[in-house]
Amino acid sequence: MSHFIAVIPARAASTRLPGKMLADIAGKPLVIHTAERARASEASRVIIATDDRQIENCARQHGFETLLTREDHPSGTDRLAEVASTLGFDDTQIIVNVQGDEPLIDPELINQTAHALAAHPDASIATCAYPISSSEQFFNPNVVKVVCDTQGSAIYFSRAPIPWARDAFNRDRSQLPASFSALHHIGMYAYRSFFLKQFPLLPQGMLETTEALEQLRALEHGHKIYVLQTRQAPLAGVDTPEDLERVRNFLENR
Question: What is the DSSP string of 156-172?
């Protein structure tokens, strides 16, 4: 069993749903639901990393460890890097990034991601993906796809439809061909602390800036990302007011 820490980056700003981290869901703020899911995992420690005093106070009131971080981080990974450096984590420490707007995240997926990294010592990162089942999903640029090598390490992530079934799609793009295999990337990450400390120092490359996918920075600089394949999609997080109502209905009627 791998020893890991769960860190929940929870920034105050949100383009599509301002203030969502503190939005009430069944009597608790959204970020607290997420933290409770992380606490239900095998994590030895759960930390909420935020740039906002209200979120910090809320976390403390609900009994969660919190760390106030800078406001200018361009990504959740950069925020985790500050946590790893500030708290002096050992370079081999495994840290799982549990996104703050995932109040329905499965604790077992958190465990599996951490264990996958522990089982692959040559990888700096582990993440997850599940099979794509429809052409609508495959051709949607908001669905990030990943292709892997024979050992399960990521070769590339893209918003484009990859891999491209040339002959089949030349004939028909309304459905996926039989026995076709494509993977939808899930934004769950486990990192080794040494990588997190390096990440903010790595310059953005052409692939990351073109695709707007920060995980490509790791690949461009030669770091391995192991991809754990799960059988089904996790329950969706909260990005929009409609998502918030969906999660409220789910948790209030559970």
Answer: EEESS--S--HHHHHH-
How far from the centroid of its chain's Cα atoms is residue 175's Cα?
28
Q: How, if at all, do strands 65-68 and 45-50 pair?
A: parallel
Q: Which residue, 26, 17, 61, 22, is CA-closest to 253?
A: 26
| Model pLDDT for residues 190-248, shown as the tens digit of each residue | 999 999 999 989 999 999 999 999 999 999 999 999 999 998 788 888 888 898 999 99
Burial (CB count within 10 angstroms: exposed 0-12, middle 13-18, buried 19+), residue 243: middle
Using a 10 angstrom Cβ sphere, with 0-12 exposed, 13-18 middle and 19 or more buried, the burial of residue 49 is buried
Q: What is the pTM of this model?
A: 0.92
Q: How far apart are the first and last CA of the chain?
A: 31
